[in-house]
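B., you asked whether I could sanity-check this one before it goes into the benchmark set. Here's the sequence:
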Amino acid sequence: MEGKFNVISSLVLVSGQCQSDQRQLLLELNLSGSFRSTTFATPLGRLMKWNQTKDCCSWEGVSCDAGGHVIGLDLSIRGISSPIDDSSSLFRFQHLQRLNLAFNWFKTSFPTGFDKLENLSYLNLSYSGFKGQIPVEISRLTRLVTLDFSAFPISKTSLKLEKPNLDMLVQNLTRLRFLYLDGITISATGNELCRDLLPFTKLQVLSMSDCYLSGPIPSFSSFKNLRELNLGDNQLSGTIHSTDWSGLSKLEIVDLSNNKLSGTIPPTLFGIQSLRRLFLSQNQFNGSIGDLHGKASSLLGTLDLSSNKLQGQFPMFVFELHGLTLLDLSSNNFSGLIPMSAFPNLRNLSDLDLSYNRLSIDAPATNISPPSFPTFTALELASCNLTEFPGFLKNQYSLNYLDLSNNQIHGEIPNWIWKSINLWYLNISQNFLVGFERPMKNINSGIWILDLHGNQLQGQVPILPSYATYLDYSDNISALFYQLILSLCNHTNLQVLDLSNNSMSGPIPQCLFQMSRSLGVLNLRRNNLSGIISDTLSKSCRLQTLNLNQNLLEGKVPKSLGNCKMLEVLDIGNNQINDSFPCQLKNITMLRVLVLRSNNFNGHIDCPGTPNNFRGKLHLTCLGTWKAMQPNPDKNQSELKHLQFEDFGGGVKYQDAITITIKGLELELVKILTMFTSIDISYNNFEGPIPGVIGKFKELLGLNFSRNAFTGSIPSFFGKLQQLDSLDLSSNSLRGEIPFRLANLNFLSFLNVSINKLVGPIPTSTQLQTFSEASFENNTGLCGPPLKTACGLPSAKEDSPSDSETGSIIDWNH
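And here's what the prediction gave me:
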């Protein structure tokens, strides 16, 4: 944040001639193994190339006092990756006042020895790769004014404050003015935070985002010197009160985004006259903003209220905030008509997002932008009831991000939209566009992310620049997109290609599979593509999603698919593939969704010939390597996300969609949760017993083996799949009784074992009786509720150990 980097950049410039002992310590430090960079190549990953013929006080990153003692060391952003121990020469700089080791990668537990630097007033260890408990020794640095331990919250081994806790760490740091603890696991409530920091009312900056803080937000009304408050990305809840912000006349930055705060936003928060940046997005605030004409801070430059439940008329007071550079009111319930003619009042505005409200934007196609109109760099007007391309866009030459999706824009895509050399992101999906204005030119702008899906595009399509990375033309009606595929063979930077649900026909060009070294997503489902799947997938395949569902593909599953070690979603269902089970998938440990349904797969589900020295019979198949379907002890169920491919260059996320038969229905899952794991191999000719490895997949939510030729009994290990929501084993040749352990599936909401050769009683006093008779019918030997066929004497047979634990046995020598 602004305040943070201003503090970091203020260095002591007074220096005298370097003392010999200080010079020796610096040389020891630079040459020591502890401070060698092994992460990055030069120049980022090096220590300073200090010129030993010059005074050491003039060396880069070194500052001295008038007596020639080193009082400042800035070793930030050097790629240092070796650990520090308490014997390091670093801890022998007795006069050191400022130490900056930020943005390195030490990859070690937090070292001891910092307490030896008792003159430190500035300590910055942010994002330096330390992990584990912050030691209590830090509390002995009583001269600290600035303390920055910010960290990336990437795992449970990240930095934490538990023993000692926050109170023990700061209790002696009475001079503290700037405190940054972002990303550190603290797990305190708002009340505890207030109690621990109450003695530090002279704090100017408090930044504790992503610290697992919970409970009500504390009052900071006694912190009269506070300039910056960042408590974003926590779990704070409840309301915020007007009195919490009274008297904070110096407050410039407030970030409470991504919490669970609710209620109305108090007008006093907007009225802090020094306020420059306000972030309240991704909460549960509701109600209207109210009439704030003449009351909001005239200095406000950033206002982000997105992703809440705010409602009422559009807050027109924003047009009085002449210093606004960013305004984001997206994903609320604001209503009203917004005239673009009012925006010349905000001539400094560069980033505007009004998407996904109930707003209508009055922006005629004629060019209305006067010289004082804002110069946008990012403009998002998705779902704003636009019916035509706004004319003012013709003069927006600085625009690099434009989203006009989910509107009612008709007609052709105008040629002028490609003229901006700065435009790299364009999303005009989900409109009523029918084609491209002629004469059509190839796209030679800077666009590398283009989303045109969900229109009615047909006819010829312009060719993208060769550096494009993301292309989504799905859900249109043009059969000529096949010509586009042929033009993409030289696009070596392409990461996402979605041409699904069009009318393309012909074979899939071999070059697309060769592009798998860059492609993360290839989605060609719901077309009329024919021929074989080329066995030319790159050895360095990066595919995470491959979706070829609902085409006319035949032949076999390519062996080179086994190169795609990052594959999470594979959907080749509803084709004419004639093959045995694709054992090349056995080493793809990330696989989460597998759809083979409605093909001509046949044979047993086993994988002989594994590259190991196993002999004889094994009780688990090679598919046990599918770790994504097995329990993950580190998984946080409260942080579920959608399965997606993220382009880190542009922050664009592609969300996978598949068609799967689950709960007896063919469903299209547009957004797949990361917890969703499913196997659908229905409508094939697989035979033999159900493989026992399925019992390891305890994360499975859906399992569909229906309409095959499986034999043997229903393995009782299904009772261990506690997350299972849907189980379809219908239309096979399964024999024996329904295992009692099947009644342990508390989350099971769909079961179908009909049309098999099952016998015996349906286990009673369980939820199995809640399913319909259709779930069990056409098993001539089955009896008991919900069937009308009564049973004789109850069976005393228990599940046998072999059946309950192993399922099928695979002979690796056959």
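One thing to flag: The two ends are 64 Å apart (CA to CA). Otherwise nothing jumped out at me.
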